[in-house]
Amino acid sequence: MVGCGYWGKNLVRNFAELGVLDALVDSSEARMRDLSERHGGRPASFEEVLSDDSIGAIVIATPGAAHFSQALAGLEAGKHVYVEKPFTLTAVDAETLVARAEAWGLTLMVGHILRHHMAFATLASLVAAGSIGRVRHIVSTRFNLGKILEDEDVVWALGPHDTSMVIALLGAEPLRVTCHGDCFFRPDITDVATLRLSYPDNASAEIRLSWISPYKEHKLTVWGETGVLIFDDTKPWEEKLVLRRMGLDWSNPPVNPDPGTAQPIALAADEPLKAECRNFLDSVARSTPPLTDGREGLAVTRLLERATASLAAAGAPR
């Protein structure tokens, strides 16, 4: 486990519970000792891990700027690699990692945790089965009073979650991306952003991001031709995913929309991060692509690059 801090400690716990944790790498010796005492795993240096043939895979949860060099070093050492989001900070770097992993027959996975969430997996299955007809519009909101980073803006820190879900539901990268945002605390770090994604056949998506919101909202709303699916991750499990059959009454203008009755969708409660960790281990054991493989990470990285270019050009489409 490379990087055992803010998010990495959660991965340490999960891989320890799955019985595969061998070594901990972190800049803080005190943190490594504490986690080792609680979860097992021996403190080590990154170089020691790379040269240890008994270690078959590494998981990287360091700051985003370090992901490319560390993932490449892992692949070059013959290790399977799981990289937390953001995968890399450029599409060129993402392409390099994908090419190396495929050439050398190694598993490369990106930590897009919501793709492994039972509520999203169920929503995606319902969409694929045609339960709400053709998808016309998606809105994803990710608001919180969260950790404000020094080396990533809100687009790169939060956006991978939502762009990954949208690409999965619409089956492709968008034709056009526009992005508007605002910097509140520092002139070079965007704290609030809205992405607009345009797809063929008038399908569209909107992603709203903020890490300075006084309230928390993590919600994905998917409008289809015959219904609406709503995944609200702030709700308890029995309310996280609901279906509404909306309607319009054209008989007596003005038209009166009928919001429909919320129909909860039964879900089996599961920890998304544990499911993600299992998926990585299964992919390594079976030599099968993980759900969020390097190519999926590349698609997300390309989209975020386009959003950044649009943001720099005052919202001009890319």
Which descriptor suits the 3D outline?
Answer: globular
What is the ordering of alpha helices and beta strands?
HEHEHEHEHEHEHEEEEEEEEEHH
For the sheet with most strands, the description reads: 8 strands, mixed
Strand order of the largest sheet: 7-8-9-6-10-11-12-15
What's the overall average pLDDT, rounded? 95
How would you classify the helix and strand content by structural class?
alpha/beta
Task: Tell me the span between the first and last alpha carbons.
Answer: 37 Å
Beta content: 15-25%
Amount of helix? 25-40%
Uncertain residue segments: none
What is the alpha-carbon Rg in Å? 21 Å
Beta strand count: 15
Q: What is the count of DSSP helices, taking H or I runs of 4+ residues?
A: 9
Topology:
Elements: H1 8-17, E1 23-24, H2 29-39, E2 42-43, H3 46-51, E3 57-60, H4 67-76, E4 80-84, H5 91-104, E5 108-111, H6 118-128, E6 135-145, H7 154-170, E7 176-182, E8 192-198, E9 204-210, E10 212-224, E11 228-232, E12 241-244, E13 247-249, E14 256-258, E15 263-264, H8 272-286, H9 294-312
Parallel strand pairs: 1-2, 3-4, 4-5, 6-9
Antiparallel strand pairs: 6-10, 7-8, 8-9, 10-11, 11-12, 12-15, 13-14
